[in-house]
Records
---
Amino acid sequence: MLELKNINAGYNSFQALFDVSLSVKAGEAVAVIGPNGAGKSTLLRVISRLIEASSGSMEMQGQSYRDLPSHEVVGLGIAQVPEGRRLFPRLTVEDNLKIGAYTPAARAKLQERMEYVYSLFPRMAERRNQLAGTMSGGEQQMCAIGRALMSGPKLLLLDEPSAGLAPVIVQSIFELMHRIRAEGYTVLIVEQNIQQVLKVVDRAYLLEIGKIRTSGTAAELLASDEVQKAYLGV
Amino acid sequence: MEFFDIFLLEAVLNGLLLGGLFALLSLGLNLIFGVIDVVWISYAELMMIGMYAIYWSHTIMGLPLALAFIICIVGVAALGTAMHWFIIRPVLSAEPINQLLVTGGVLFFLQALATVIFGIDFKNIGVRMPSLMVGDISLSMARLIAFGVAMVAIAATYLFLNRTFAGTAIRAISQDRSIMPLMGVNPERIYLITSAMGGSLAGLAACLLVLQYDIHPAIGLSFGPITFLVCVMGGLGNLLGGFVAAFIFAQLISVGGYVYAIEWGYVMAFVFFIAMMFIRPEGILFRRR
């Protein structure tokens, strides 16, 4: 579904990604793991075209989109849940969801999608008229995921969904991941919580200082020396 | 109780009517600031150009007044859009002081342009509206109409912001600019829509003012600074705050002007503004979260 080849990207003179190649097949859940500052979020921003890749190729369902403006990427079926949730705090839950369905194709199905998201997250239906900024962190994460689903994506990008949340909530967020997968979405997730995320995904890439260090199935990575020593502290 | 006389009531009512006009003007400026994060110091000069557009099309070209009003609103909306495209867009990521200087430059340019074309004489379109007598209170018909139209326009803007996708995007973009593309929103398009809306509100204000005031190149200065102060007092970008501040400000000018002398009304309003900047610098409706 998503195919990145030899991506180089960065900010001004600082290069954050070096020759990163990555692929996500339809129906798969893939994680990009790695330490803070490895370039994981940068990678997702490149995929959403918020950051220009200086070289390399990007394809979504066989269509190259390296020159597409960032606001048209959603139209390809790629929706991102940004790091830190980034809801519009002074808009209601319902308005936040509505913004998620901004593209013309999604607008036509606004009611249908809204009901779908509410059925997936009944808590959001209860809070539809509440200002998003007044909800708990876990609820905000639900709302942020719901907002991304409003565009009717094929591929869901999740940037550190567990960051900044209490341990109990983190647990529920990963349970949420299972439900999202069960709904048939293809998922690319960036996480520092390696142990947890490797239980949810099929495959993973280990990113270190802007380079793919290793990749494999979740079980392989969990058992690999690199991950064991450096990240799980075994 | 000589204080509560009929003339005081008249001053209060006139303040209310004036407040409606301030509210309309501050809405446009606030909308633009909230969305684009740039203060159009030259906002009232767009209105001044609109007044001349009415004068030109109605008095000089002989077009019906209604058509002249439409030309004014559409024209100023186009002017607002052009202002964003040619003046603001190139300095969007510049220092705020430079953005301010650029819009200040537009202010002087538009004033000079109007002076060159129309001269410094006071013009008017020759429409004289009667006064409405309610008991012993005399209210200007033009002001009543201006108030009514301003309220309708504000309500329409409110509905637009709350009911449409573009309106929701406008409210969202002022809260988080950088993630808008992830929603499929092209910020540049929202900026243009907002500039056109701000322009059309200035154009509408021109239609309402032309019924009450003579037109001259510096008339923007009678309204621009007050509009800006109203916006700041309400909290720049806070539409509801601006609405409330407009009525407080107008009431101070009107009642203060009645109790003492007309200039004292302005003095009181400005003193109040300065005091508020110390007491509530974030705006009258600001709540700490």
---
Amino acid sequence: MSNGSMEIKQISGHRGGTPGSGVSRDYDVCKLVDTTTCIGCKACEVACLEWNGYEFRETTFDNTYQTMPDTAWNFWNLIRFNESTDDSGNMMWLMRKDQCMHCADPGCLTACPADGAIVQYQNGIVDFNQENCIGCQYCVTGCPFNIPKFNSATKKVYKCTLCSDRVGAGLEPACIKSCPTGCLHFGSKEDMLDLANKRSAQLHANTSYKNAGVYDPEGVGGTHVIYVLHDKDNPEKYGGLPKYPAVPFFVKMWKGPLKWLGGIAMGMGIAAVFGHYVRYGPKSVDEHIDEGSQR
Amino acid sequence: MSSNIVVRHGTDLREGEVVRYTLVERMCHWVAGISYLYVLATGLALFTPYLYWLAYVLGGGPTIRFWHPWVGLVFVAGTWWMHKLWADDMHTTKEDIEWRKTVKDYVTNNDAKVAPAGHFNSGQKQFYWIMFYGASILLLTGLVMWFPELMPRKAHWVLPPVVFLHCVGALATIGAFIIHVYMGIFFVQGGLHGIIFGRVPTAWVRAHHPLWLQKAIKENRTRVSTTSFKGDR
């Protein structure tokens, strides 16, 4: 682990065992988005643009609280707004902060053919290195969350970095800093899961959201962005959050069996024709057959 | 130029030679062949990290990502051109069925037992159709993969199977291509010379494509001319 160097080895002026030696904790990072306390203020959208240096894009008004229909190459953080009606006819406004989920099993990275264009750090952040990106958009093919976005001018793909530059310097992501309701939290995955479970227990105990729960999908090995949802069984109604996200089957087949079977088949094919040549050699043409022919 | 050379179908012909491929046929073959070599090399670079060095050799990842689809279109155009030239010669005949029964003798150089072949033998025809249908699959899937940014989100589910199919189609053509190159350059010597310069010895035709010789004479592909000497220098 990158933080292994900061574990205590020994301390000065101390008799006996070293307190704190071998003590470590999980340093994988996680963002917790509590949709039950999000008010859709979009401060996180602005903070994301400010920190990453992008102009605010033109918004589109669709008679709702939606800023624009989708994230974009220069707009990585979007509050998804949906009106929902529960079984007893109560209307709800659902707000979900949409951004890269930083999957433990990232489909974008699996699909990417470019050397070093996508990196997964030990702390769980999945980051794009645009200097190595070739613009093929296989990452779009591999992502179950519709996150990587292509810039037609630069021919590169962009997405949320989980503020890897800030996190690397010991800071929280920009969106976290801006949240006025405290619906955004940042810490280790273990701590955030603990907090998320406590929050859903609180919702069970004190509110009518008896189906509240944590969204940390197993299909992609868990994510480094997790949600608390009022209704964990229907994530789709939060702006299309997939219920069972996974790296697409055909991406797994393509990057798994097809890749190595294809490689073996090509190698064997070349070996086979070489072997055939060594055994049988070229066909010979009997020149004498030409004699007395109808030239 | 020696007066011993006549020109038939854009091909210099000496005594005892036959125009195996006309100038147009050769150009068509090499448009398809050279464009295929490029899409093969760049496609393999994107297929496996072990061959990504091909991307650097050919100008870098973004460069090959830009050119691969365009050169792919050239390859498809080449195969369609070839289809126009050769499709009539590529249908299975009853001679092909006989030839296939003796394919084992053909492969093991037991040539006396091999059934006679026409302009193309059955194996060449099979290679042709693999490349023709392979090109069709690669074109259809490749067009989808070219501009995914123009696809609506709801259509994104087609991308994984399309990419998968593109790879399967490519691998099928690669298998056929390995055999094609081996046959043309090594196994059936004179084949490469024939597809570059167009001419092969009459004895070569008698050995490999005996049923075609009469037709070649009729098409004025030999030194025997029953009609005119227009092509003579």
